Amino acid sequence: MTLTSQLIADQADSTTRSYEVRTFGCQMNVHDSERISGLLEDHGYVPASRDEQADLVVFNTCAVRENADNKLYGNLGNLRAVKEAHPGMQIAVGGCLAQKDQNTIVEKAPWVDVVFGTHNIGSLPTLLERSRHNQEAEVELLESLEVFPSTLPTKRDSTYSGWVSISVGCNNTCTFCIVPQLRGKEKDRRPGDILAEVQALVDAGAVEVTLLGQNVNTYGVEFRDRGAFAKLLRACGEIDGLERVRFTSPHPASFTDDVIDAMAETPNVMPQLHMPLQSGSDRILKSMRRSYRTKKFLGILDKVRTRIPHAAITTDIIVGFPGETEQDFQDTLDVVRSSRFSSAFTFQYSIRPGTPAGEMPDQIPADVVQERFERLVALQDQISGEESATLLGTTQEVLVTNDTGSKGATTGRLSGRAPDNRLIHFSVPAGATPPRPGDFVTVPITETHPYFLIADPQPEDYQLRRSRAGDAWDLAQADSCGVNAGGSSTGSGVNLGMPTIRVGG
């Protein structure tokens, strides 16, 4: 570094530093990014505006899918020249891929300043400072959890809805998954701590929470209470002002009737369930070490629909697992036909180094996987369209979000979520009061599509319910940038670089 660039960097060190967090991965990664943002702001960093280059870019990574590696290293490559043009800029990499690759990240991208893992998020500000002082990369990966992430400061991405982590880690040994190696064995938070965080969110204006864990329905294993998760759902039902409770993700092998009862009997637990199938072949499920079979899986869905008739059930499915025959794949299609999922997150199997499945024989050729994947997607698209069509003409209460969809600017429609979490794009009749993010509107469904619904109500069919969450949105906008109620957000320090389903509107 030249004397001039060192002086520029030193000057940057003495001023307020801006940051951006780019997230790749699951809901747990998104929640961790909220903690990272809160931690950075607690140490004086400010979110970068859309038109400025951040002084710090943090990548919070996933290691479950093959393209996670490509996405990270591609982004790091693009930032090399940017960093050279901005003396004092820092780059940090955390999350599951950091925990897995460790020093490899700095070997492949020596311009990275900090590498931290899933167990020591709280160390990030110290590592950044140490790297700036020593002018060398800092790599710190712990093998066990340093501080439970939910004890760290939080910069919530939403004023009306929030993630609440109830556990971290996983005790399962699925042969395709590397998460237990990267996040460790399951560690549960005490119920009182969880409910205190939920109450704090509600006190701040939130009307919706999602309870989050790698396997939420084994919650309580650490303190030997098999009924802890059902009790937690019921306790959330006692919190005044909390209107919607969701959770993700459960494991079919551990899903019990007491949880179904709690869902059915707790009014603010939403009629929605994400139940990962992974495969409809019992032979493949055994090879995956998924400790359930299709009969049990379908039995759970039957019980849920008996108690909660209008529940929307979603799933995860892997296509092309090693050794999968055409008959195995046909078994999966049969289960999908029987299950009537409202939507499915479908994945083509890819080898993940360090997993037993990666060493298995009979890896499926890519062209076979692709062809099966396309057949599965076509079937699920058909089912999703048929299930959505049953809602035509129904009336739905929509929690309004601050995402207007890809066509919102041209259609003028706003967006929100139904109780069963379906995406609804709706218009506001001429002369009617527009809602704020966090408010509720009740509208009739006038058009259906496989993965979203349209509501274009007449004035007499449009009902607005202003909420504390909408008030909180107004306050947040006024505090951050002075935008009037109903204006669009200028963004936060968290950029969700996750794959999404593109929808029209």
From TrEMBL:
TRAM domain mapped to chain residues: 389-459
Function field: Catalyzes the methylthiolation of N6-(dimethylallyl)adenosine (i(6)A), leading to the formation of 2-methylthio-N6-(dimethylallyl)adenosine (ms(2)i(6)A) at position 37 in tRNAs that read codons beginning with uridine.
PROSITE patterns (UniProt xref): MTTASE_N, MTTASE_RADICAL, RADICAL_SAM, TRAM
Subunit structure: Monomer.
InterPro entries (alphabetical): Elp3/MiaA/NifB-like_rSAM, Methylthiotransferase, Methylthiotransferase_CS, Methylthiotransferase_N, Methylthiotransferase_N_sf, MiaB_methiolase, NA-bd_OB-fold, rSAM
A GO term from the CC aspect: cytosol
Family: Belongs to the methylthiotransferase family. MiaB subfamily.
CC cofactor: [4Fe-4S] cluster
Stored PANTHER family: CDK5 REGULATORY SUBUNIT-ASSOCIATED PROTEIN 1, MITOCHONDRIAL TRNA METHYLTHIOTRANSFERASE CDK5RAP1
GO terms assigned for molecular function: 4 iron, 4 sulfur cluster binding; metal ion binding; tRNA-2-methylthio-N(6)-dimethylallyladenosine(37) synthase activity
EC number of this enzyme: 2.8.4.3
Protein name: tRNA-2-methylthio-N(6)-dimethylallyladenosine synthase
Entries under SUPFAM superfamilies matching the protein: Radical SAM enzymes (SSF102114)
Domain MTTase N-terminal: 17-133
Cofactor-binding details, from the entry: Binds 2 [4Fe-4S] clusters. One cluster is coordinated with 3 cysteines and an exchangeable S-adenosyl-L-methionine.
Pfam short name (any one): Radical_SAM
Binding-site residues for [4Fe-4S] cluster 1, renumbered to this chain: C26, C62, C96
UniProtKB keywords: 4Fe-4S, Cytoplasm, Iron, Iron-sulfur, Metal-binding, S-adenosyl-L-methionine, Transferase, tRNA processing
Residue ranges constituting the Radical SAM core domain according to the UniProt record: 156-386
Catalytic reactions of this protein: N(6)-dimethylallyladenosine(37) in tRNA + (sulfur carrier)-SH + AH2 + 2 S-adenosyl-L-methionine = 2-methylsulfanyl-N(6)-dimethylallyladenosine(37) in tRNA + (sulfur carrier)-H + 5'-deoxyadenosine + L-methionine + A + S-adenosyl-L-homocysteine + 2 H(+)
Keyword hit for Iron-sulfur: yes
Enzyme class: transferase
Top-level taxonomy: Bacteria, Bacillati, Actinomycetota, Actinomycetes, Micrococcales
Primary residence: cytoplasm
Source organism: Auritidibacter ignavus
Domain of life of the organism encoding this protein: Bacteria
HAMAP family to which the protein is assigned, alphabetical: tRNA_metthiotr_MiaB
